[in-house]
Specification:
Elements lengths: L35 E4 L3 H12 L4 E4 L8 H4 L3 E2 L7 H8 L1 H25 L6 E2 L2 E4 L3 H11 L11 E3 L4 H5 L7 E4 L3 E2 L2 H14 L3 E3 L3 E8 L12 E7 L1
Parallel strand pairs: 1-2, 2-9
Antiparallel strand pairs: 3-8, 4-8, 5-7, 6-7, 10-11
Helix pairs in contact: 1-7, 3-4
Amino acid sequence: MNHQLFSDNFKTTPYWWEQAPLTESVAKDLPESVDVLVIGAGYTGLHAALQTARAGMNTLVVDADQPGFGCSSRNGGQISTSIKHNYATLTQRYGEKLACDILTMGKASLDYVAEFVHEENIACDFEVTGRFHGAHSVKAYNKLALELEQPNPVFNSDAYMVAPSEVHQELGTDLYHGGVVFPHFAAVHPAKYHNGILNRVISAGASVIGNCTVKSINPDKTNSTSHSHAANRHIIQTSL
């Protein structure tokens, strides 16, 4: 990398890590056995570990790098429905009922994060900011308007169109040819959010080990249970 291309204060890590430094590692030694092993200490892995740990299961989370080193602490902090395809496309592929179920699940994920942050009292700068989805042409604007008329649980959650003449008032620019606003979309400090989940997982009794690479998972059916068939167990080969 040619550092002459960058300013003196250039960093290869996100600037917001200064407010929420990553944890090097939480536990040091690998246990002989656990009830639940979670591979990956990002949002998804930690949320899973929180459920199992609070359910009383001996839970271990391992990550090849520092917990949260990847996209969980590097993303832009947008909290939306995370559904890429629109109602029409989903209906064509999967039918009307499943299309609505998929979109409803996406909206539920948005609501879940808001409830989780509030109930767990996580200090992560959570804020319902809304989101403007801009149209770059008349055709794109008309497409958004048509989607807003469909029985879409996402678009119909108080979303509203912004006419081309109103874009400057909404954004302070005339760059877009109108668009749509999703009032319930939110934002969060991604690293603070990750640290908050991590702290809850540790408080729940789970172990979290960073810089611990899982190299292989080997099925082991040698141990029997009280049932007549063998138990499906796995031996995990790791490297600290």
